[in-house]
Amino acid sequence: MRSVTEQQNTPQAAPDAAAPQAHAAGQAPADVAFPKTIRSYVRRTGRVTTGQAKAFEDLGPQFLLSYANAPLDAQAAFGRPGKLILEIGFGMGEATAHIARVRPDDNFLCCEVHEPGVGALLKRIGEHDITNIRILQHDAVEVIDHMLPEGSIDGVHIFFPDPWHKKKHNKRRLIQSPLVAKLATRLKPGGYIHCATDWEPYAVQMLEVLSAEPQLATTAQGYAAKPDYRPLTKFENRGLRLGHGVWDLVFTKC
């Protein structure tokens, strides 16, 4: 994903926390003709800074979870009960760290493949003494498939996923019917999906896909007002000053 674009559109999720490498994404349901494979990320390169590397070393053992082909024991992972919010693709972690601080009673399970982004969020965790985040550096689709049983999460955040601007690449967009249906089954009744994008054609697609999912209901007529917990990043503020739009969508489990 990018920052809310380059900071939020950094690829989502990667392999085991102890050995971050590219990993095959989970398969779409057999009866879904397209896409054949749901991918939650695209691998991009980036340099890990000295501070990020130190954060991996110092904080990784506490805040990085290992992928397992088994249901997640969230209370054990966080060391406490609490609502479980899944975030797919947190980029450099600016918004993630802010939300975790303003919602201290909730637990945030965050999937991101981009190693510098994971290091940056670990660094923020240390700087702000955040305790309610756990990171899975693994493909989010496999995490959903194998670690999150039906009815196990209270919310999903997907902020500024890669818009894949070219029409021939639109099929690579994350928000498509198979993934949304999968997420909806994992939500508890009353749970929510919150998406945001700064690319209007993608916002239109998101609205169509989310509205078509029978397990979900919209919280607004069309696009939603930005919830107070989602901050405006530097990138987003710059875009707004230039007249660029940002669209939030919030749907709840029926």
Top keywords for this entry?
single chain; 254 residues; alpha/beta; eight-stranded mixed β-sheet; two-stranded antiparallel sheet; 8 helices; 32% helix; globular; disordered N terminus
Strand content: 15-25%
Mean pLDDT: 87
Structural class by SSE content: alpha/beta
Element-by-element helix/strand order:
EEHEHEHEHEHEHEHEHE
Shape: globular
Strands in their spatial order, largest beta sheet: 3-6-5-4-7-8-10-9
Structure annotation, total helices: 8
Indicate the low-confidence ranges by residue numbers.
3-36
Number of strands: 10
Taking all Cα atoms into account, the compactness measure Rg is 17 Å
Task: Give the end-to-end Cα distance, rounded to a whole number of Å.
Answer: 29 Å
Descriptive overview:
This protein is an alpha/beta fold. Helices cover 32% and strands 20% of the residues. It has eight helices and ten strands. Strand 5, helix 4 and strand 6 form a beta-alpha-beta unit. Helix 1 packs across helix 4. The radius of gyration is 17 Å and the shape is globular. The two termini are 29 Å apart.
